[in-house]
Amino acid sequence: MSFLEVPLILLFAVVIPLIVIFHYATEMKKTKGLTAQDEATLDELRKLSEKLEDRMETLERILDDEVPDWRSRRHDTL
């Protein structure tokens, strides 16, 4: 082995992988948690799901009034 082979092997086998690992570990710590855009999207989805739930409850009330046994008939067809 030549004089430069040992330091190069150590560099490529130990130092560079450690640098890459620490780099991505710090990047993950920086981006840990939700961004403002993520929170806004989640809030929008929550509002939409509440609106859909209200619509579904309204439809169920209408069906209960119009077709009282719709729930049992639905289960009979399954």
UniProtKB/TrEMBL annotation:
Q: Share an example GO biological-process annotation for this protein.
A: regulation of DNA-templated transcription
Coiled-coil parts of chain: 35-65
Query: What InterPro entries does this protein map onto?
Result: Phageshock_PspB
Segments passing through the bilayer: 6-25
Q: What domain of life does the UniProt record list for this protein's source?
A: Bacteria
Print the keywords alphabetically.
Coiled coil, Membrane, Transmembrane, Transmembrane helix
Name the Pfam families for this protein.
Answer: PspB
Q: Which NCBIfam families match?
A: phageshock_pspB
Q: What is this protein called?
A: Phage shock protein B
User: What organism does this protein naturally occur in?
Assistant: Iodidimonas nitroreducens
Tell me the organism's taxonomic lineage.
Answer: Bacteria, Pseudomonadati, Pseudomonadota, Alphaproteobacteria, Iodidimonadales
Gene that this polypeptide is encoded by: pspB
